[in-house]
Design goal:
five-stranded antiparallel sheet
Length: 137
């Protein structure tokens, strides 16, 4: 019984360490207004972090200090050495946060398309969105 409890404790500790290693905590300067979830966020300096396994929080550190939370999906992790970055989809003058990668933890998440982004995709059936990548720290 002691051996079972010890093994279970070690497995739980290793599981917690691997979950911590997958955490996203990045900062980035976003030079344009963009949409994430149901909110339109202003241009500015952002701190982006995991709040739980599938919830990402974005906080604008400049101006009105607006904040948003969004549910995310898992995305393939980046290889070692890849830099932190944000990927946006652009349709005309509208930007939508699509992916976030964090280099120290090799974690990556995808943000599902918003209702507005799905409308734009449907109206431009043949056009693919332009992708814009912004470096993060």
């Amino acid at each position: 019984m002691y051996r079972f409890a010890l093994t279970a404790g070690i497995l739980a500790a290793v599981g917690c360490l691997s979950l911590h290693a997958q955490t996203i905590r990045v900062t980035a300067t976003i030079p344009f207004e963009f949409q994430v979830g149901a909110q339109v966020m202003p241009a500015g300096d952002y701190f982006i972090s995991h709040q739980s396994t599938h919830v990402l929080q974005l906080t604008c550190q400049t101006g009105a200090r607006k904040s948003a939370m969004v549910v995310t999906n898992a995305s393939p992790a980046e290889p070692a050495g890849a830099s932190s970055r944000l990927v946006f989809h652009r349709y005309g003058n509208e930007y939508f946060l699509a992916k976030v990668w964090s280099s120290p933890s090799h974690a990556a998440v995808a943000i599902p398309p918003t209702k507005r982004e799905r409308e734009l995709i449907a109206s431009a059936r043949r056009a693919t969105p332009a992708s814009l990548t912004i470096a993060a720290k």
